[in-house]
Amino acid sequence: MRLSPLPLTIVLLISMQSTAGAQHSAWLTDLAGENSGHTTAHFLTLPVNATQLASGQAAYSYVSNASDIFQLPAASAFFTHYSVTASHLTWLMDLRHEYIAGAFPVINAGTFGGYANLLTAGDFGPSRDIDEHETSPRYGEFSIGATYARQLLYERLAVGTSAALVQSRLDDIVGRTFAASLSGMYRHAKFHVWTFMRNMGPDMTYTATPEPLPLQVGLGFKVLPFQTEAQKPRPIDLNLTAGALKTADEPLLMGASVHTTLLSIISARLGYEYTYGKDPGIAGLGWGIGVHIKHYRASFGWKYQNSELGSVWGISAGADFYKVSARSAEDLYLLAERAYRNKRYRRAIAYAKKAVNLNPNLWRAHALIARARTELRKSKGMVLAVVYAGNLKGALMETVSGNRAGGGLARQATAIKALRKQFPLTLVLNVGNNLTRTSAPHKAQLIDMYNKHMNFDAVALGKGEVDYTAAHLESNQKHLSTRLLCTNAGVTPGLKTEATKTLTIGSYKVFIAAFSSACAAQGDRDLVGDQLYRLRNAFNSPQARESDLRILIVDDTWQKAQATIRQLTKADIVICSAIPQQLAAPMSIGQSAVVAPGDSGYFAGRLVVGFDENKKIAALKNKLIALNPQVLPDPEIEASAQTASMQAAFAHNDIDQQELKRGSIDGVVVFVSDRKGVPHIYLKVIAQTAEFPLTFGAGACTRPRLSWSAGKIANLHRDANDKDMSLRLMDINGKHAETVFHAQTISSPAFSADGAYIYFAASHRKDYTHLYRLALSSLKAEPLVEWKHAAIKDIALSTDMAMMAFAAQHEKKWHVYLASATGEKPLRISPMHANATQPHYSPEGKLLAYLTDEADMRDSKDLALYAPATGKSVRITTKANVQEFIWTPDNQSIIYSSGVNLFDLNVYHLQSNTTTKLITSATIKDYSERQPRLLQYKGRTKIAYYREYPDGERAIYWVNADGSKDQLIVNSHSSDWFE
């Protein structure tokens, strides 16, 4: 944590004074000064310039130059120029007081200064010592100090401090000490206030007895009756000053002064200072004049002390040069922004206003002022946020159109929940039209659940809900149990409606009505000629008239909505729930402000209503929140929406989910796609040309593995904000998804042939890898193999479930190992000097194929076969650079992807020991053929694979086992592939 040096200095000085000056600080309450004579170094209490002399020290009106830093260093924080000054005062008894000072402001750092203060005696005349010998005594006192001041609030509040070395010489006796001061000043356009404490420090010792410094405290107040915020020069200016000064052992001084300036050149001042306990008189009266031409200035001051001592006078001269540039508009905006972040909204407004004064086109500052004012109103309960969303038109999941992606119930829920937290007073509306006539009952159930889950203050009825109900009325399915708002609804079969709603939110009463053209005049003959009859009556009701805010939700085309609004002038806010356009800036129609969120659920709206003290609308600010991929979906709503959408899609495509789980439906492909921005897993049923997303959310889902025996799909998942990985299981139709294992890394999930177990490798620490077996019946994982300083991947299981093969890296080489299904006695089967990976058992389990770089140590892998019965290996390709491979169901062929720059699918025939290309083409290929997969479709074996193009795009194809009918089966205009 970084600490500013100024507060630390202040704490140090106060601590020092509380100990060193405790013995005489009580004298400050002695207003009559009955303890006079106890302090020393009184030259520290003398005026240091002609202006101070004329005005009186108690009512000293600072002059904004280096003369100020001795008594009031805080004033220097507002300096805009380098300033130097020198003064000479002829004091009582021919004492001479000299003062010289300089102050230097530094942008964003503060003002630094230094001064020297000297008091000397005149000619003492003939003098003698105690022995009557003639002598020439020496006398002199001085202080040398440094000052620092800084603004705490720009152009408003400042503090300053000083530290000085003090020396006093009385002939041959010298005393030294340290003195410090603290001061503060607040400036307003019409008045200035300041205070200070000076001469704090250790006592001074001449011989043996310590003597305290003349501690001083003062308070001053200046009134500027003709000044404005703009601070423009005036022909004649005037200010009045009053103040009080108390020196520890001296009487209280009170004073007042008047200062006038003509044409900013000639100045005159008159001051009077009264000593507490003395009879009023002309003693303490002073006057002075000054001149200021360009950078130079001079002044003269005179003061009448009393009849015994007479008067004193002084002159001062100085110069101001090198104007330090004021803060830029951008600097002030940054200060305003920082104040806003710290929730100091009034300060943020003040800084932003100053930025706007310097640059009226700084629109960010204008916007910040509006935001800060809104926050101030919020803190006073004078702001109500109206959050509205809807018009999904059946698009309950994320939609993708060209380069536009987003929307969906889950993102809408996230946005609404976040907006609710931002405002203490919030009204949340579902404006309707979330269903269509063709929406499946699963989607209607989801919408009903969503309305209850989000606890909307009102849910409007739209044409979509009317059409859906009409389409499903004969089936008597009561899916919409939520009571829907529609003021002009007659008897609408199958729907529960309410005409209006009146809510109390904070101290505000809100009236809500809704109009739907789909319900106009239904079941009521009196409404046929006037569809707005009920609506007019509603807004003329006592509930509406007594409300502080009246809202109307209109479900109609834009042209008809405008006509409806013009005929109804008593709605403060109108939300158009059915139009495709977004109205981000409120549109004025009559006395109403009209907004709209658009359609397809791409936006949610937030209309901030600011009220004045009389509960009248003072300001409106609308914003549409884009529900794009940057808005993370609400997990609970997304899971429900995903399930409902999939059930609806299965029903729409006449897919029996029980048949799907049993594997009775052929032509089923599980693949990975990045169509939502991150990899997710999809299911395609080729016969129905239907695709279904099985996973969702912000995290990446990869490595899908399907087991018809288990009726499950396993996959790996890595959340966007989690460094670890998860192993997940779900039904083939996407239901009952759950995380079954969590680790730092997980790889190579593989089902046993009977679907009872899933094997995988996982690492919880960098130096250990475990090979696990998880029972699907209990979802408990047991470690089978534990190796230190090794990695495990590529797990393969024999069809009789007796043996297991896997690849493990040890001492920088990957090798293939065989073990029992429970991991006992792993045996390396690949050559020691070569890498070997990707073991795969043949369907009958008599052979094990794997990849090895034995023929070429430059990572060009070949196929090798291992016979567990004989323990012999044979390499069947040479420098083929094989990438992936699969066995054919008849155990007689291996289909593999290989090549140099581009990869082709090839077929190795075991009986003839020959290789042929699977797919031949008359044209030159500009793509690679990767990751072959076997499919059964209508009694035929198909090989699915994905094409990878040079630009990185991927698409899924399939081909007959003889290489004929090469066809595209998945093309989402994104990348789709197998893993």
Topology:
Blueprint: H1 5-20, H2 22-25, H3 50-55, E1 81-90, E2 96-106, E3 110-120, E4 127-128, E5 134-135, E6 139-153, E7 157-170, E8 173-187, E9 191-200, E10 204-205, E11 210-211, E12 216-223, E13 236-247, E14 253-262, E15 266-275, E16 285-293, E17 296-306, E18 310-323, H4 329-341, H5 345-358, H6 363-379, E19 383-389, E20 399-401, E21 404-406, H7 409-422, E22 426-430, H8 441-454, E23 458-459, H9 463-472, E24 484-485, E25 497-498, E26 500-505, E27 508-516, H10 533-539, H11 542-545, E28 549-555, H12 558-567, E29 573-576, E30 582-589, E31 592-597, E32 603-611, E33 617-626, H13 635-652, H14 657-662, E34 668-673, E35 680-685, E36 690-693, E37 700-707, E38 712-718, E39 725-731, E40 738-743, E41 745-751, E42 757-765, E43 768-775, E44 780-788, E45 791-797, E46 803-810, E47 813-820, E48 827-828, E49 836-841, E50 848-852, E51 862-867, E52 872-875, E53 882-887, E54 893-899, E55 903-909, E56 914-917, E57 928-937, E58 940-948, E59 954-960, E60 967-970, E61 976-977
Parallel strand pairs: 19-22, 22-23, 24-25, 27-28, 28-29, 29-31
Antiparallel strand pairs: 1-2, 1-18, 2-3, 3-6, 4-5, 6-7, 7-8, 8-9, 9-12, 10-11, 12-13, 13-14, 14-15, 15-16, 16-17, 17-18, 19-32, 20-21, 26-27, 30-31, 32-33, 34-35, 34-61, 35-36, 37-38, 38-39, 39-40, 41-42, 42-43, 43-44, 45-46, 46-47, 47-48, 49-50, 50-51, 51-52, 53-54, 54-55, 55-56, 57-58, ...
